[in-house]
Every structure is written in structure tokens, then in C-alpha cells.
Design a protein that fits this description.
Arc Repressor Mutant, subunit A; 2 domains; alpha+beta; Multidrug-efflux Transporter 1 Regulator Bmrr, Chain A; 9 helices; 37% helix; elongated
């Protein structure tokens, strides 16, 4: 089984090689023994765009070279890039660039293209790949679960164990929660005493039916940095080493003085896992922390 970054890099290479062929998500998925649905979900999670749309945009962007630098007629250009009909190519071209191929050839105005995607070396981990954050607005949400105080120096070992214990033994007792999404939230971080509270939880609509024994927490709506991780392992196999590698990458971003936002991971942060996204090969994890814009 390919490592996540090798898989994604190969997919991107296959797309570039297939721009003048009938490349499509089904063909690519078959090449790597993935279901087409899982490939689509994995690609969108990694690159925040759907793979079919990316292929279409790359084909149209690549076709500009033939359109502007050769005398090839539009019909042949359409065929060269896998379009069965000239009008299908023309409609897609206008939707992508805002004008017809013939007009662009005549006016030679500047248009914005879709460049090839890349995975950078600094995002690669031993068993996974982590993507630099995007800034998102996280609406208010409520969680309920188990709470424990964890020393900083033991968090990478104790937190994964606590997550598995909650998921196997306690989740079922919290009614009305999303049964497929785990949230592990770190809060009440004490820098002097070097410990924090870790809440292993599920999201609930409200606290009305949550048993008294469970910790309840409200995450207030705010801007957050969201990192995305894809790993070549089951969620249960997230251990000290894997978690440490992820936090090393996050730490580099936190300490980068050129970033526009300051991460407030010394206040609160949480990881989110949707088990529906695991197909037996690759897992997905999202990591969030509030941010403020630097002055």
C-alpha cells in the first residue's frame, strides 16, 4: 500500500500525464485499488476541491497552449484533450475562462488558469501527510464526554489511550450524539504547572440528555486554523510518534513570524475524526485551534 503522500503525488502525476487522454476519477481509483468514492473524498479532503473539477480545469488550462501558440482548429483541440464534441469543449471553456476559445485566440487577453497541484516535502511525515492550515469560521458547538488532567510530558501517550477508551466504553451512553465523529479537546492549559485538561467526546445538540457523570463543554464560535492529516493507518494506531510528528509541523507554523495569524493553541485546541472516512487504508484527521490576526 502506498504511503499517503506517494498516493496523492501519483494521482497528480497521472492527471498531468492523462490530460490528452480520457483520464477520470474511476480510472485513477482503479489504478490504486481504491473505490472511486473514497478517492473523491480523499482528494477533496487533501486539496479542498473535487477531483473531477480539477481534471476538467487542468485539461482546459493545458489546452490554452494549443489555442494560443498553434493554428490547430478548435475541433481538433477539443478531441486532443478528451472532449468527444466541440460544443462540449466550448461550453466548458467559457465556464472556466469567461469567454469563447475563438475570442481568446483573437483578443489574446489574460486569463487565470488552474496550475498543477503539488505536495511539498515539509508536509510529508513518516506514515502520513499534513497540510498547512486554512482559516475557517467554526460555529458554536457542544460536546460531552470524559475529562482527565494530563501532564504535558505524557500527553502524546495518554491522550490516544483515553480516546480509544472513551470510544469503546463511554460513547454509547451519550444519547443523541453523532455516533461517527470523535472530538478530542484540550483546554484549561496551565503553562506554569505544565498540564492541561483533555476531553474525549462526541458532539451533541444540547446538554439536556447528557448524563451527569460526563463533562460538558461549549466551544464558542470563532476563527480557527484547520490542519488536515491523512495517515496510512487506523485511527487506533495514532501513537506518540505519529502525534509528535503532527505537532512538530504545527509548531513550525506557530513559530513562523511571517504568518498573518497567531494561533491560540496555548488556550484551546481540538482534533476531529470522522470514522466514516476510513476505508481500511487511509485515515483522515482535522486539527483546529482559534486564531487572531496579527496587528
Amino acid at each position: 500500500m502506498l504511503k499517503p503522500y506517494d498516493l496523492l503525488e501519483n494521482v497528480l502525476i497521472d492527471i498531468e500525464k492523462g490530460l490528452k487522454e480520457s483520464i477520470n476519477p474511476a480510472v485513477i481509483a482503479d489504478n490504486y485499488s481504491l473505490s472511486e468514492g473514497h478517492l473523491r473524498r480523499l482528494f477533496k479532503f487533501a486539496f479542498k476541491q473535487n477531483i473531477a473539477g480539477y481534471i476538467r480545469s487542468r485539461k482546459l488550462s493545458a489546452s490554452l497552449d494549443d489555442l494560443l501558440n498553434t493554428d490547430t482548429n478548435v475541433l481538433d483541440i477539443a478531441f486532443n484533450y478528451g472532449y468527444s464534441y466541440e460544443q462540449t469543449y466550448i461550453r466548458a471553456f467559457k465556464e472556466e475562462f469567461g469567454l469563447l476559445p475563438g475570442k481568446l485566440r483573437k483578443t489574446k487577453q489574460i486569463v487565470k488558469i488552474k496550475p498543477p497541484l503539488h505536495i511539498f516535502d515539509e508536509n510529508k511525515l513518516k506514515e502520513g501527510v499534513i497540510f498547512n492550515p486554512e482559516i475557517v469560521m467554526v460555529p458554536e458547538f457542544f460536546i460531552a464526554g470524559n475529562s482527565q488532567i494530563i501532564p504535558f510530558d505524557k500527553s502524546l501517550t495518554l491522550a490516544p489511550k483515553a480516546a480509544i477508551e472513551f470510544w469503546e466504553n463511554d460513547k454509547k451512553h451519550i444519547k443523541g450524539a453523532n455516533p461517527n465523529v470523535f472530538i478530542g479537546l484540550t483546554c484549561n492549559i496551565n503553562q506554569e504547572e505544565k498540564y492541561s485538561e483533555y476531553i474525549t467526546s462526541v458532539q451533541v445538540k444540547n446538554f439536556n440528555n447528557v448524563p451527569k457523570a460526563y463533562r460538558k463543554y461549549t466551544f464558542n464560535s470563532c476563527l480557527c486554523a484547520r490542519f488536515r492529516y491523512i495517515g496510512q493507518h487506523h485511527y487506533y494506531n495514532i501513537n506518540r510518534r505519529i502525534a509528535g510528528e503532527m505537532y512538530n509541523v504545527i509548531g513550525k507554523y506557530v513559530n513562523n513570524k511571517h504568518q498573518k495569524y497567531t494561533l491560540l493553541n496555548d488556550k484551546v485546541y481540538f482534533e476531529k475524526i470522522d470514522i466514516n472516512n476510513y476505508d481500511g487504508k487511509y485515515c483522515q484527521l482535522e486539527w483546529f485551534t482559534p486564531v487572531v490576526e496579527k496587528k
